[in-house]
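ingest -> validate -> predict -> emit
validate: passed (alphabet ok, no gaps, 537 aa)
predict: started
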Amino acid sequence: MKSNLKILIFALTIFIIGGCKKSKEVFDPPYQHGKPALGIKINETQKPVPEEGEPGTVVTILATGLEQYKDKLVFMFNGEKADVTEITETSISVKVPKTASSGVTSILVGGNIVFGPDFKVKGLINFDPTFRVVNGTNGAVAAALKLDEGKYYFVGGFTNYDNKGTAVPINRLVRTSLDGDIDRTLRVGTASNGYLSNMLAVGNQFIIAGGFSGYNQRKENISNITRLNTNGTIDTVGIKVFNPPTKPETIKFFPRFNGGTNGFISKIYNYQDKITATGDFRYYISRRYDKPNLYQTKDSVILDSTEIRQIVRLNPDGSLDKTYRFNAGTGKGLSGANGYVISYMHTKAGTNAGKMVLVGSFTTFDDAPAPYIIRLNADGTKDAGFNVGSGASSTISSVTYNETTGKYLITGTFKTFNGSPSNGIVMLNADGTEDKSFVAKTITEGYVYGTKQLNDGLIVVFGDFKKYGNVTRNGFMILNPNGELAEGYNATGLFNGSLNDVIETVSADSKRALLLIGQFNRFDNAPVQNIIRVTLE
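emit:
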């Protein structure tokens, strides 16, 4: 249990804190290391013929010394066994198996393995050539906000975007076209001095949140959340500060959004123009600017705090909404979870509007049993209509919901859910009951970090796993709604890292596409940097 929790904490750090450090990349083959080659030689520099192909394609690779092992050898495409069609003195011909994915070829004889050249398996997922971000970012991309006119805001831990921030850093906030080109008209200056986890629109302005204390020229008086104007400048207000009677009145400018937290904010939501924030904090913080210091010689900023753990709702001006999860008698917020929480809120109209699902490492919520998952009503009370039964047996590390399918997907280190065996991925109906039509296969040699269900029911899964069931999948796969690997969508090679979001969109030539953002440096064996767009053919 302790080792699982350590792995989970590491995965959550990737999701939330970000900040990719450059290091030498070392990737192990997805199968055992080899022994002496027994006289077998493969020309690894000689490309296969053809160099790429779909499952069923017959591929020829130059090799010698194979004839004596023709009844013993196993040929593999990225760990998946292939049918051998012919062996000669100088070559071997094989048929690409249905389960193959792009990667290294190899020949296995007993406990001996000989590696061959890479082979590209053609599939339905491909890099989108119309996406103009070539160099990605130098840090994690945490979230994206799409505007009505088609532009995007991206926030995260980066200070460079597509190598456009070499001379002047692009500090954790950028606006782009639909195809990724940077919009230089955004006036953010030096922007945030810390990691940004989220951004949302409220009226004709924007709220940003994360772990930061200053924005552009405002180096202080911000506590992990603030409000921006449409042009990217911080929304400020002039306040008449205290001055002794012998001095003239003075007006100073401070952030108009006067509220925040004492710790990291991981998610923010706009529901009925109020801001709900969740994260790793214990206190709500606000400031008073018009009071004198102890000696009444000049103005002083007074910091007020109210104990509010993990979940807080703010009014449009940043003040504390005491109608939400607040005990007026004690002057504190309700007790919340006894462990870490990850949230998802329904913000669209409907029966679940304003409700919030919380998952994480907790076993109680507001001092009542809560088996790692709970749903709150729009007023912050427990939703008794969310029927998860006995819930998960261990930590739940992610939760997503699809408005079209009406399903939740949860992942984690749990082995059972509501008493039934589980492989750490469970689909739930809107009422919290398990959708038994989805059956996940065994995950081996790693963990699932997260999932995203697409509007047509396909499911994107990512992590550091090596196999799904008996099929090699190096950290990324797409499943059918029943949990089976989706045919044609699982030919991509190695994925290395984690995703913060998977956004359904279209390419410039109107193909169905996915915008992938997070902290990752490999996709389909190719080097990438935290943001790409792929097409679904």
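The longest strand covers residues 512-523.
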